[in-house]
Structure formats: structure tokens, C-alpha cells
Amino acid sequence: MVDLVKLFRELKVYRLLIALVFVLVFLQSLSELYLPTLMADIVDIGVIKGDNGHILKVGGLMLLVTAAGVLFSIAASHYSSIIAAGFGKRVRSKLFGHVERFSLHEFDKIGTASLITRTTNDVTQVQQVLIMMLRMMVMAPMMCIGGIIMAVSKDAQLSLVFVVVIPVLAGTIIFIGSKGVVLFKAMQLKIDKLNLVLREGLTGIRVVRSFNRTGYEQRRFAAANKDLTDTAIKVNKVMAFMMPIMMLILNFSSVAILWFGSIRIDNNDLQIGELMAFLQYAMQIMFSLIMVAMMFVMVPRASVSAVRINEVLDMKPDMNDTSEGEQGRSGGHIEYRNVTFSYPGAEKPALKNISFTAVPGEMTAIIGGTGAGKSTLINLLPRFYDPQSGSVLVNGQDVAGLSQDSLRAKIGYVPQQAVLFTGTISDNIRYGKEDATEEEIRHAAGVAQAAGFIDEMEGGYESVIAQGGTNVSGGQKQRLSIARALVRKPDIYIFDDSFSALDFKTDSRLRAALKRETGHAAVLIVAQRVSTIMKADKIIVLDEGAIAGIGTHEQLMDSCGVYREIVASQLSEEELG
After folding, report:
1. What single string gives the DSSP state of each residue in 368-405?
2. Residue 379: Cβ within 10 Å count
3. Listed residue (470, 383, 457) closest to 426, CA to CA
4. Around 260, how many Cα atoms within 13 Å sit in the side-chain half-sphere?
5. What pLDDT, on a 0 to 100 scale, did the predictor assign at position 83?
6. pLDDT top residue among 177 and 535
7. Strands 334-341 vs 389-394: parallel, antiparallel or unpaired
8. What is the mean pLDDT of the chain?
9. How far apart (Å, rounded) are the C-alpha atoms in residues 187 and 184?
10. Closest Cα partner for 544 from 380, 353, 365?
């Protein structure tokens, strides 16, 4: 509940609307509390005494009060929906904005599937309970207290029935509600698991089908789905007891009121109309407690969701901007100074005591075996992670002292797995520079060797890229990713094994074009193929997270055994010659 209250701070901007909803609900409650008294008046004066004029007069007033209550109810529902929807929008935006500031460490810690569930399902749960609370938070206590006051005013002795009924009802609600909290928490975790399985199965559908693992994925999904279903059935069984018990208590209360009320009528201590009104007030009191019971069903689950949402919002990113306004010096001089980095929980560092420099106008290549730490090394430059010790400097400034925006504005990054977004080809290239002109887009595509296949597509640069870029080949995706980085015209280019899907002819043309285009910038290339980096100005050889050698191809062939092994495994003597 504490986490729900904490989350509801986002409602400050809706203070006036909330006050209006409370007033409307208050007026609706008053109208409903007034109706039984009017009905008693009709029975005791109009019906029993045969005064038709009084029946019509009071009946008309009842219709007016009812109509007013309906209008108040509609207005309260309308404004409470606006408040809840606006609250959901604000929380989702806040979550998304906060998550975007996370380092990759936080993503690894929570998991993408869980973050999606928290931003969608969990926010919806809180939003739904908010609508209920806006209506019932005023109505339930108002109807309960007002009903008791009105019932006592009709017959104080008969009201003693509530002394027994209300504690029994309240105790039942609290007992059943407490049993549901644990199950609701487990249920949200199982939704995370189902979301994870579903996401992996759909995003990896090509791999699933190519290995004929459709049946396995179906069984995996069915297991996660059954686990969630079993928990949902269990929690629904617990909560299903609530309504029948509520109705049983309510019906026993009605019987008790009629039993004792008939005795008091027989003794001339109560009139028929007053008994009818008393019974209606009793029903209002019971239903107000049932409203509370419904909140007990919703609030535990919303509380669990609120805990999960606040867990994300309270999580402080490992990397904070220490100087938001600092733009840094121009240029792309890079220096790694005694850098050591370990992944959380790893037995040994992924990088150990790494030191080198990369300067503008030069191509610095990084090569090494699988797991040598190549991608980890370059991930430290745009601050996807921070090193445990040592420093990464750009133009003499530690990247930890630059704002992430200003640092990343200097970098054109092409990831190992080419990522494209839903939209046109122009949109995807313009992702690197929002205000890029058509001429700049075409130029970047030309340098990236993408212009040829783009022109052959029916829509050209306005051709639509499907979700995940599934309607273009791996090589085409890589070239579009390279074009996206080129249009930015940054001070630093990072190519993380970005030529692996290209044929040798395209690779050769692209490298020649890149050399002309990136002459002003520092270029870091991670590569598996020796042929891609043989002509680099500087080659850094990594082996098990440490630098095994630095130099040109010729220098390393003479001095670095690890590099010679890599070259020998890929190139023939004729190619070397």
C-alpha cells in the first residue's frame, strides 16, 4: 500500500479534477441515502393513509433525486477515467524515460521482458485500481457511515444487528484479502516469465524454424502458460469465496432485520415504511462493505504492481552524468588508460589493464578470438558500461565527466547485430541525424554501398522496412546501419564487426569509400576477418581480455604469435604474399 501511495504522487497535477470527482461522488451518495427516506414517507403517509397527492408529490421528488444521482455518477465516472488514463500515461512516460538512462548493467539485472511487463501490465493494474478508488474511496465510507446514521435515526434498537454483522463482514474481507496478496505477487512474476518466452519465440522465429524447434517452443510456452493459469485459478478460487460469503452474510442480515423489525412493528415501535427504509439502509451499508471487499481484491495486485514499478523508478543507474552542461572539446582523440572491466558475477575480468590511443585520421582495428573482449572494449567508449578501474578519455577528458548526450553526439556507432526500426529506409538513415537532407541521406547510402539495392526497390528510399528489418538481407541491414552512422558525420566511428555479412568485393569497395569519408575522424573497427583490417593504421590484438600486441599488420606478423595464428587460420601463403 505504501508503494501505491508513493506512486500516486503523480496525481498532483490532477488535484482539482480529483476534488471535483470527490464532490460529485459525495453528491451521488447523498442522493442515494435520501431515497429510502422518501420511500418510507410515501408508504407511511401516502399508501397507508391513501393520500394519492402525497404519493405523486414525493414520487416526483424521488425521480428528480434519482436523475440528479445518475448525472453525478456519469460525471464522476467521466472525470475519474480522465484522471486514471492521464496517470497511466504519465507513469509509462516516466518509466520509459528513466529506463532509457539505464546502463546495460541495469537492463541485464531486471531483464527486457520484465521491463516491458512493468511498463504495460503493471501500470494497467494500478490504473484500474485508481479508477475504483476515486469512486469508492468516498462512496464506500460515505454510504456506510451515512447508512448507519440514517438506520439509527429510524430505529436505534434494530441497529444493534450491525454490531454483529459489520465485524463479521470486515473480518472475512481482511482474511480472504490477505491470502490473495502472496498469490498476486507470484502471478506477476509468472507474467514476466510468459512474456520472456513469448518474446524469445517470436523474435527468434527464423532460428526456431530453421532448427525445426517449433514443437519445443510450443511446449515451452505451454508450460509457462499453464504455470500462470494455475496460479490465476488458485488466486481466483481464493477470491471467489468472497462474494458468496458476502451475499450469505447480507441475506442473513436481511432475515434478522425483517424478523426483529416485524416484532417491533407488532409492538407499534416501528412503521412498515420505516422498516422498508431501514432494510434499504442496511443493504447500502452491506454493499458499501462489498465495495471495500472489491478493493481488497484489486488493491493487493495493484500493490504488487506498484512495488515492481517503484523498483524500476528507484533504481539508480550505475552511470550518472556528472556535468550535464559539459559539451567537451571538439575532435576525436581516444585514449584507454589502464582499463580493467568485469561483468557482474564473472569469475575473472573481461578486460585487464588495457592501454592504447586512437587519433583522428587513423583507422584502429581490434581483432582477437571469440570471447577475447573486443565488443566489451568498445562498449566502454559510449559508456554502455563503466570500467572498474582505469579511464577512457576523449580529447583528454574522462568520459565519466562528460554528459552522455554530448559524448554520444561525437560517436557514429554500428553495432554487431544490425538493428533497423519500423519505417522507411530514409527514416532509418535519418535516425543518425534527425535533420539530414535528402542529399545527405543519398550520399551516406552511396558511401555505405547501399544505394544500388535501394534504387532497385520499388519505393526507393521510401520503401518500408518491416519490424526488425526482416524484409532485407543481413548484408543490406549492415549497410543501412553503416549509412545511419555516416550521415551523422561524427568525430568517432565505431564499427563492431559490421562487415561480417558482406561479400569480399562489397567489403573492399566499402572500406575504400570509408577511408575517403572518415579521414577527419578516429575510426575503431572490430573485425573477425583479417582481410578487413590488414591495411589499418594500427591493429590491437586481444587475447583473453589482455592486449597481446599493437602495431601494423607487418609489425605484428614479426612480433605477435597470437596475430600470426589468426592470420594463418584465415589466409593462405599466396594471399599473404
Report:
1. ESTTSSHHHHHHTTTTSS--SEEEEEETTEEGGGS-HH
2. 20
3. 457
4. 15
5. 92
6. 535
7. antiparallel
8. 84
9. 5
10. 353
Q: Please state the CATH superfamily assignment of the domain spanning residues 320-410+490-577 in this structure.
A: P-loop containing nucleotide triphosphate hydrolases (3.40.50.300)
Cβ(491)–Cβ(330) below 8 Å? yes
> What stretch of H or E contains 516?
helix 504-517
Identify how many contiguous H helices and E strands the chain contains and give both numbers: 23, 12
Q: Report domain extents, the chain.
A: 2-314, 320-410+490-577, 417-489
The model's pLDDT over 277-299, given as tens digits with 9 standing for 90+, comes to: 888 888 888 788 777 777 766 77
Are 2-314 and 320-410+490-577 equal in CATH topology?
no
Predicted TM-score (pTM) of this structure: 0.65
* 111-160 per-position pLDDT tens digit: 777 788 888 888 988 888 888 888 887 788 888 888 888 888 887 888 88
* Nearby residues of 425 by Cβ (< 8 Å), 6 or more positions away: 445, 454, 457, 460, 461, 462, 463, 465, 480
Q: Bridge-partner residues for 541, per DSSP?
A: 367, 549
- Say what the pLDDT of residue 324 is: 46
Q: Give the pLDDT score at 325.
A: 42
DSSP secondary structure of 443-479: HHHHHTT-HHHHHHSTTGGGPEEPGGGTTS-HHHHHH
Question: Is a pLDDT exceeding 70 seen at residue 273?
Answer: yes
pLDDT per position as a tens digit, 91-101: 999 999 888 87
Q: Let me know if domain 417-489 sits in CATH 3.40.50.720.
A: no
Read off φ and ψ for residue 324, nearest 5 degrees: -55, -35
Give dist(CA 80, CA 155) in Å, integer.
36
The upper half-sphere exposure of residue 13, i.e. CA atoms within 13 Å in the direction of its Cβ, equals 11
Q: How far is CA 414 from CA 355, 483, 545, in A?
A: 23, 9, 22
DSSP 324-383: TT----SS--EEEEEEEE--TT-SS-SEEEEEEEE-TT-EEEEEESTTSSHHHHHHTTTT
Name the CATH superfamily, with its identifier, for domain 2-314.
ABC transporter type 1, transmembrane domain (1.20.1560.10)
Q: What is the mean pLDDT of residues 317-327?
A: 57
* Spatial distance between the Cα atoms of 427 and 449, rounded to a whole number of angstroms: 18
Nearest to 37 by CA among 271, 255, 290: 271
In the block, which residue shows the cell 407511511? 44
Q: How confident is the model at residue 403 (pLDDT cuts 50, 70, 90)?
A: confident
CB-CB contact of 351 with 340 (8 Å): yes
